[in-house]
Specification:
This is Rhodanese-like domain-containing protein. The protein is an alpha/beta fold and 133 residues long. 38% of the residues lie in helices and 13% in strands. Strand 3, helix 5 and strand 4 (107-109) form a beta-alpha-beta unit.
């Protein structure tokens, strides 16, 4: 019997060093990849994050695994810092835990998601999103 989604989320987060929106900005300045898994509709409603690479959740592991033939060029090694974001910071925790299971030990997510970013008063991008198929 499944322990439920809340237990799954708690387990996923227990292995993450989650970042605040301001810590995320600092991590990206230091070279971390900022990965946005939101849908096009949600990005249209909330706006895009500066410097984020948009990757659909259904192909996230394939695009970020350095050993995958379908990886993005920025997926340069298992030691690369990756910060995953979603709308509110729930599915991003599950995604980051999956990336850690894959061997990307520095994968994490941002507390509060894009809504947390907006609440923190951080700027949204003025440029089109960097969407990776």
């Amino acid at each position: 019997m499944s322990p439920g989604v809340e237990a799954l989320l708690e387990q996923a987060r227990s292995g993450l060093q989650r970042l605040t929106p301001h810590e995320t900005v600092a991590a990206v300045r230091g070279g971390a990849l900022l990965i946005d898994t939101r849908t096009e509709r949600h990005r249209r409603e909330q706006g895009d994050l500066p410097g984020a690479i948009v990757i659909d959740r259904t192909v996230l592991e394939w695009r970020l695994d350095p050993a995958s033939p379908w990886r993005i060029p920025e997926a340069t090694g298992y030691d690369r810092e990756i910060v995953v974001v979603c709308r509110h910071g729930y599915s991003s925790s599950l995604a980051a835990a999956s990336l850690q299971t894959l061997g990307l030990r520095r994968a994490t997510d941002m507390i509060g998601g894009v809504q947390g970013w907006i609440s923190a008063g951080l700027p949204l991008s003025e440029h089109p999103a960097d969407v990776r198929p």
